């Protein structure tokens, strides 16, 4: 496609619409279910960011918008000429205007509306001021003093969600070799090392790293999904146990913990060693589960550090942003 640059280590999955001069950097993953992701002219998605669109939660990104490193966008609409700080998370249904700036690590909650020319920081994000002349000059300077917007000419890229014969990298560590059920699927840019067992029908998505070295075993059950650019590891003399039907969102860090049946950990969350999550727990996006935290069955937890904010009264279904056939 004309002037689209995609680094070799980036991954485009599904049907994605690009304008001209778009750029997808190293380790970034863009996943679209059912033609649900579009990116305008001259927009950049930098290293290890993840963008996920679905029919229920489509993503539309304007022109000359730049995402910093390790950003996450799920089901959001973002306007033109936005400057997005590293580690920012946009959650489903959020809508952002044009000429907006986001501080590093900001979280935009589901359904939040950010008007044009806003400067936003915080977890959750809050508008701290309107764009100043100095802010506008920074946005212009970062784009070579060209903030003109040309008419959008879309080009469609279609990629298979699961390409035959392409699976991730499996590494021995000492005497330990990962054991992976033949029905599990490991995306080609995922890496699994050492003392790791993965059960039937589980999915390890693009860019995931699962490390079972001398510190202890990693045991992943059946029908588990671990999404893009997440990292699983553990401290010495510990174990990481993930029970059946668990869903781990994009960009998470999961250390030696026990995660109960049907739990959902949303994007960008951190779960620390020696913690324990019960069955059917929901960990909200960007939350930090501290070391040795214990959360009981059916609890909803959120915050930095995480605390109980509610209770699940029903068994959760897998979220719309989860991997499905494309």
Q: How would you describe this structure to a colleague?
A:
There is one protein chain. With 326 residues, the chain is mostly beta strands. The chain contains one helix and 42 strands. The protein folds into two domains: 5-159, Hexapeptide repeat proteins (UDP N-Acetylglucosamine Acyltransferase, domain 1, 3 Solenoid); 169-311, Hexapeptide repeat proteins (UDP N-Acetylglucosamine Acyltransferase, domain 1). 3% of the residues lie in helices and 37% in strands. The strands form five sheets. Strands 2, 4, 5, 7, 8, 10, 11, 13, 14, 16, 17 and 20 form a twelve-stranded mixed beta sheet that branches. The model has no long low-confidence stretch (mean pLDDT 95). InterPro entries: Hexapep (IPR001451), Transf_Hexapept/Carb_Anhydrase (IPR050484), Trimer_LpxA-like_sf (IPR011004).
Summarize the structure.
With 326 residues, the protein is mostly beta strands. 3% of the residues lie in helices and 37% in strands.
């Amino acid at each position: 496609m004309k002037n689209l640059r995609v680094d070799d280590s980036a991954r485009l999955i599904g049907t994605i619409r690009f304008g001209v001069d778009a750029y997808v950097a190293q380790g970034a993953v863009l996943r679209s279910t059912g033609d649900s992701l579009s990116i305008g002219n001259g927009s950049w998605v930098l290293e290890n960011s993840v963008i996920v669109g679905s029919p229920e939660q489509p993503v539309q990104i304007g022109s000359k918008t730049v995402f910093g490193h390790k950003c996450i966008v799920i089901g959001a609409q973002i306007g033109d000429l936005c400057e997005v700080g590293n580690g920012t998370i946009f959650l489903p249904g959020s809508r952002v205007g044009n000429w907006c700036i986001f501080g590093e690590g900001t979280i935009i909650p589901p359904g939040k509306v950010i008007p044009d020319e806003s400067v936003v920081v915080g977890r959750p994000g809050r508008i701290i001021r309107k764009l100043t002349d100095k802010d506008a000059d920074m946005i212009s300077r970062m784009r070579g003093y060209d903030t003109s917007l040309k008419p959008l000419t879309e080009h469609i890229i279609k990629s298979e969600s699961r390409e035959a014969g392409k699976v991730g990298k499996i590494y021995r560590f000492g005497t330990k070799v990962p054991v992976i059920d033949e029905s599990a699927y490991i995306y080609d840019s995922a890496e699994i090392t050492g003392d790791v067992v993965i059960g039937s029908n589980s999915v390890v998505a693009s860019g995931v790293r699962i490390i079972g070295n001398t510190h202890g075993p990693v045991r992943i059950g059946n029908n588990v999904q671990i999404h893009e650019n997440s990292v699983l590891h553990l401290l010495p003399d510990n174990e990481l146990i993930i029970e059946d039907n668990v869903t781990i969102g994009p960009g998470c860090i999961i250390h030696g913990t026990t995660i109960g049946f049907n739990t959902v950990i949303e994007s960008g969350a951190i779960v620390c060693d020696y913690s324990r999550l019960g069955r059917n727990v929901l960990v909200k996006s960007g939350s930090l589960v501290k070391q040795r935290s214990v959360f009981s069955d059916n609890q909803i937890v959120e915050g930095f550090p995480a605390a109980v904010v509610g209770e699940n009264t029903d068994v959760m279904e897998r979220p719309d942003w989860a991997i499905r056939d494309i």
